[in-house]
Specification:
267 residues, two-stranded antiparallel ribbon, mainly alpha, 71% helix, single chain, binds geranylgeranyl diphosphate, Farnesyl Diphosphate Synthase
Length: 267
């Protein structure tokens, strides 16, 4: 049995942790705008979900956001302890890069995926966003800082998911730019709705605690813009994202439907 098959067989014995799997879904949707067979891109989609899940396990730790619930279950550290949670997150992060090497795409593309994922998750991406988020707790922050935090913590990984699907399918540069524009916009919508759900949502539907942002003095869209303006911003960005992607014609139908789903989601 080759290494890839062994690795996949091992994964099959590990219980699933839930979650919406939005990011790998985006990778696959973008890829399927050009190609039917998803097999070549599936390891790349899985790698992005692994990095995302890694960041959630860290985020829930007592010294970061201190959250007891995630995806409708007790969070990783709450069940297994901080040490095991750190190791679980470490392995998700490290093995995400291993999994990319199994993708049936050109070697040059694998190198590009590894580099871009490391950049997005690293000190100039996810970690930078999280760092400023921590520094901003309990402080009054301006719109620019709010955008910086959420662009880096949320929107860029969402955008990257789409980008990897399009790159994997060798989308033309002009179309890649359109997908990028759509991705940046829905990435921000995703975070605005996340912030609104923390105020107005149901913890049963979300599978995590609510009301924590305000309690922890977090930098959120409703805190800076108010609830009504945040909702309007999300609706406007969604329309703009749909307009941008509709220039790709019928192939973009699922992405347009998804944009509306993200605007109206309850979980
Ligand atoms: C070292 C790369 C690295 C990260 C650590 C903790 C941290 C730095 C970053 C936190 C990133 C974070 C928690 C961003 C929030 C993004 C967000 C809204 C997550 C929720 O995504 P969903 O709703 O989750 O898609 P599911 O559970 O459905 O997958």
């Amino acid at each position: 049995m080759n290494t890839r098959k062994k690795s996949i067989r091992h994964c099959a014995t590990v219980p699933f942790a839930g979650g919406k799997r939005l990011r790998p879904y985006l990778t696959m949707l973008a890829y399927q705008m050009y190609k039917e067979n998803l097999d070549p891109i599936t390891p790349v989609a899985a790698a992005i979900e692994m990095v995302h899940t890694f960041s959630l396990i860290h985020d829930d730790l007592p010294d970061i956001d201190d959250d007891e619930y995630r995806r409708g279950k007790k969070s990783c550290h709450a069940v297994f302890g901080d040490g095991v949670a750190l190791l679980a997150a470490d392995s998700l992060l490290i093995n995400a890069f291993e999994i990319i090497t199994y993708a049936e795409v050109d070697d040059s593309l694998k190198v590009q995926f590894v580099r871009e994922l490391a950049t997005e998750a690293g000190i100039k991406g996810l970690i930078a966003g999280q760092m400023v988020d921590i520094e901003s707790e309990g402080k009054k922050i301006d719109k620019k800082t709010l955008n910086y935090i959420h662009n880096n913590k949320t929107a860029r990984l969402i955008n990257l998911s789409l980008r990897f699907g399009a790159l994997g399918a060798k989308a033309p540069a002009k179309e890649l730019a359109i997908i990028d524009d759509y991705g940046t916009k829905i990435g921000l919508v995703f975070q605005i709705i996340d912030d609104l759900l923390d105020i107005e949502g149901s913890s049963a539907k979300l599978g995590k605690s609510i009301g924590k942002d305000e309690a922890q003095g977090k930098a959120t869209f409703p805190a800076v813009y108010g609830i009504e303006e945040s909702r309007n911003m999300a609706a406007e960005l969604t329309e703009k994202a749909k307009t941008a992607i509709s220039t790709l014609g019928d192939r973009s139908l699922k992405l347009r439907i998804l944009a509306d789903y993200l605007l109206h989601r309850k979980s």
